[in-house]
Amino acid sequence: MATTLPFTGGSSMGHKIGTERHCRCHNKRKALLGAGATFASDSSCYMLQQMQQEVPSSFSSFSSSSSPPSPQHCLLPLTHLDTAAQCGSETSAEVEENHEVRLEIIPTMRSIVVFYMCYLLCLGLGVACVACVCVWNSQWRGGFAWDGSALQFNWHPVLMVTGLVVVYGMGAVLYRIPLTWGENKLPWKILHAVLMLAALILSILGLCAVFDFHNAKSIPNLYSLHSWIGIATAALFATQWVVGVAGFLLPCSPVSLRKLLKPAHVWMGGIIMLLSIAACISGINEKLFFSLKGNTNGSLPYSSSPPEALYANSLGVLIVAFGLIVLKILSNQQWQHPDSRQQSTVYTPLLHEEN
């Protein structure tokens, strides 16, 4: 039923009084409902004031006529005013919705900026790790060779830090880069697989260097905790790469297998990163204990904190910092690939990808 306003007099003064009453009622409602009803209340008052200027000419004739107005003219329909108030409420809701959308966009852009800051820091720490391990083995350990001597052993820390830590970490965070979130994922899948394969090859070469050295010097293999962690990490890494290629790149892999493997693949990637850091830290410590004994060659013992010990310990700190940044990037859900946040993603095998 349309809301009506009674006509209180023969002139327009009664209509103004009714208008003021209606505005006061809306002002009380505005105080009770709060800021959410402000726009709707103001719209109703505004429309009522506009109605003063749009009163039919019959109202003007009532003021000059001696006869009383008819009952049909004593009621002012306000149906369109209620409609205007509803339209004002919808407009207010749209404004609030647009404001919420803008608030959602701002943190997203901020998150992308933070990601690139972390990514550049990760890249810088990775380069620093590779440079420091090369300087350590060339400056204090005599350089490199592949002849079964101690110089061949120097390849072991360089290859393991470069492959199992730095290249592996950069390949792990590849899918977190926003530039890889396009529709064509094939190049990034191939790049991810190539980086992981390169890290695996470098790790295998590092293991060959230390095994050849031990065999040439008749030193037992795999007797220390460092060697156990290292060989376990390399074995898990090789298994991870083979299963990843078979489950995510081969066209014959079913969607159900991919959905089953994906959480385990991501989780195992972080575990391998942690084991790699543990293997490198224990290896650096073990090398310093074996080399810095304070023997007849003039070297100071490890407990005296010689420059080589300080330098190698600093290398360990860089490796830990690099690993923590990688794990931070991998654990942040806002930086995950959009397909990883959607449960209904349709998977297309490698050979069926759009170019």
Low-confidence stretches: 1-17, 28-48, 54-66, 68-90, 100-107, 342-355
Question: So what's the oligomer here?
Answer: single chain
Query: Kindly, what is the distance between the CA atoms of the first and last residues, rounded to a whole number of angstroms?
Result: 62 Å
Radius of gyration over all CA atoms, rounded: 38 Å
Trace the largest sheet across and list its strands: 1-2
User: What is the percentage of strand-forming residues?
Assistant: under 5%
Name the structural class. mainly alpha
Average pLDDT, to the nearest integer?
76
- What form results from the Cα inertia axes? globular
The biggest beta sheet is recorded as:
2 strands, antiparallel
Count up the helices.
Answer: 11
Relative helix content: over 70%
Number of strands: 2
Q: Spell the H/E element sequence.
A: EHHHEHHHHHHHH
GO cellular component, one term: lysosomal membrane
Pfam families: Cytochrom_B561
Membrane topology: Multi-pass membrane protein
GO molecular function: metal ion binding; transmembrane ascorbate ferrireductase activity
Describe this structure in words.
This protein has helices at residues 12-33, 38-53, 57-64, 79-139, 150-153, 155-172, 186-216, 225-248, 255-291, 307-331, 338-341, and strands at 4-6, 75-77. The chain has 355 residues and is mainly α. Strands 1-2 form a two-stranded antiparallel ribbon. Helix 2 packs antiparallel against helix 4 and helix 7 (186-216) packs antiparallel against helix 8 (225-248).
